[in-house]
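User: Predict the complex with iron/sulfur cluster.
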Amino acid sequence: MSFFVMTKTILKSLFSKPATEAYPFKPRTYPKYSRGSIAINTADCIFCGICARKCPTQALKVSRDAKNWEIDRLRCIACGACITVCPKKCLSMKNTYSAALTIKQKETFSNA
Ligand code: SF4
Ligand code: SF4
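Assistant: Here is the predicted structure with iron/sulfur cluster placed in the model:
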């Protein structure tokens, strides 16, 4: 009995569309409001540090003196708190993910 059930499942799988996407061969499409990665427009940033103080995971580091804004993508949980509090509205959420990291590294943006 179970042999026939298994054969039926195999035949059904052979002739149906795959349940998964062929990523990375087929580019992924993201829903409009999906949460991806934080982006910054450094031209508008005043390096006030409010975003870093409100970040629940300490993913952000801001240096006013060095005019430096830094994000640790492995710490960021894409909560959006930094976007909400930024007085200059220079942070945004891209709906695509940042590239996978193979080593622990930080992205630094500087206006120095
Ligand atoms: S809150 Fe906005 S303006 Fe202030 S440091 Fe962060 S990104 Fe820059
Ligand atoms: S989205 Fe949340 S966790 Fe990520 S940097 Fe902003 S405040 Fe921090």
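Helices lie at 2-14, 50-54, 81-85.
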